[in-house]
Amino acid sequence: MCFLQRKSKISASRKLMLKSLMVAKAKEELEQEMEEKEEQKAMYLNEKAPPIQTSSMSLADLQTLCEELHAKIDVVDEERYDIEAKVLHNTREIKDLNIKVLDLRGKFKRPNLRRVRVSADAILRSLLGSKHKVSLDLRANLKSVKKEDTEKEKTVEVSDWRKNVEAMSGMEGRKKMFDAAKGANQ
Q1: pTM, rounded to two decimals
Q2: 22 contact partners, CB below 8 Å, separation of at least 6
Q3: Is pLDDT at 104 greater than 90 in this prediction?
Q4: What does the alpha-carbon distance between residue 27 and residue 25 come to, in Å, rounded to a whole number?
Q5: How far apart are CA 156 and CA 32, in angstroms?
Q6: pLDDT one-digit tens code per residue, 147-173
Q7: Which portions of this protein are annotated as coiled-coil regions (predicted)?
Q8: Residue 175: CA atoms inside 13 Å, Cβ hemisphere, count?
């Protein structure tokens, strides 16, 4: 079969113009998203850390305020350092485990699997142990065909054909065959 390539219905210049419009729209959306993030950041900082008016504070108040701020900064730095240490430890552990996995894959060559014939009795013995005497003979459950029926059918078919040639000729013979077949089925 011959496959034909579908020609695009849009010209190259139209495609180029659409691409440039899409890029311009994406650029506008990106700039708008950046502005929204900056606004959210400013709102969060205003909410969590309101501006401090230091003009009405005395020198002792300013010193205590600085000490409180430095204490908070120290706490945050300690938390950040602890988290970074945990992350580094976990990344090292992940790398080590990956190296171990790769080593184990390389050491053991997987053999080609062979089909093994195991009887149902052997499977049951392996699962249940040698104490249980369970026999599962699947062939006993199969339907058996009686040989007598097949022999009768063969004897009916093997009669001498020369005797019945004249009797079976014409429409009368066909009617007899039809009636005989109908009687045998019922």
Answers
A1: 0.33
A2: none
A3: no
A4: 5
A5: 94
A6: 665 555 555 555 666 666 656 666 666
A7: 20-79
A8: 3
